[in-house]
Amino acid sequence: MGTGSDSKMSGPDSLAGAILYIVIGLAIASYGGYDYIQQTEAVRDSVQVDATVTELSIETDRGTSSNPGIEYQPAAEFEYTYSGTQYTGTKVYPAEIEQNYETRSAAESAVESYEQGGETTAYVEPDEPSDAFLKNKTSNAPIIAIGIGGIFALLSTVSAVRKI
């Protein structure tokens, strides 16, 4: 360990590194924006289908050394038929970015209205019938990605300006 000033975070070491970080931040924010638009359209355009829940669980993500928290994710599998073709779905929400919860009970509450082996309603976009979901509402996961990517890009921009 060095002195207190050595342990201060200073961002990328070069202007090129800062620009790379800006691009990464913008890519994360852009993907979040794209996913938010896609899920909003899916909710708006979806049609109801009858579905049978075949599996329910709560998955645990123990994190990494840089993100040590535990997160919980509701997982579901369900079968449904659309236009005479049978499909298996796995999405609780229409977003591609999965919704995580800080507590197991919060994740359980997201799927508490479903029962393994039970009948329910799923939602299908007619243009993408193999991509059904159980909850016909948007999740906040894409908005979180937009925020994280935006903050990352902003901090990287500040670092880049300091390198000039």
- Decide which structural class fits the backbone: alpha+beta
Shape: elongated
End-to-end Cα distance, whole Å, is 29 Å
- What fraction, in percent, of the residue positions are helical? 25-40%
According to DSSP, the number of beta strands is 5
Radius of gyration over all CA atoms, rounded: 20 Å
Strand content: 25-35%
Tell me about this structure:
This protein is an alpha+beta fold. The chain folds into two domains: 14-46 and 139-164; 47-135, no CATH class. Helices cover 37% and strands 27% of the residues. It has three helices and five strands; from the N terminus they run αβββαββα. It has helices at 15-45, 104-110, 141-163; strands at residues 47-61, 71-82, 85-89, 119-125, 128-133. Strands 3-2-1-4-5 form a five-stranded antiparallel β-sheet. A hairpin with a 2-residue loop joins β4 and β5 (128-133). α1 runs antiparallel to α3 (141-163). The longest helix is centred in the N-terminal third of the chain and has 31 residues, at 15-45.
Give me some keywords for this one:
alpha+beta
Brief characterization of the structure:
The chain has helices at 15-45, 104-110, 141-163, and strands spanning 47-61, 71-82, 85-89, 119-125, 128-133.
Summarize the topology.
Layout: H1 15-45, E1 47-61, E2 71-82, E3 85-89, H2 104-110, E4 119-125, E5 128-133, H3 141-163
Helix pairs in contact: 1-3
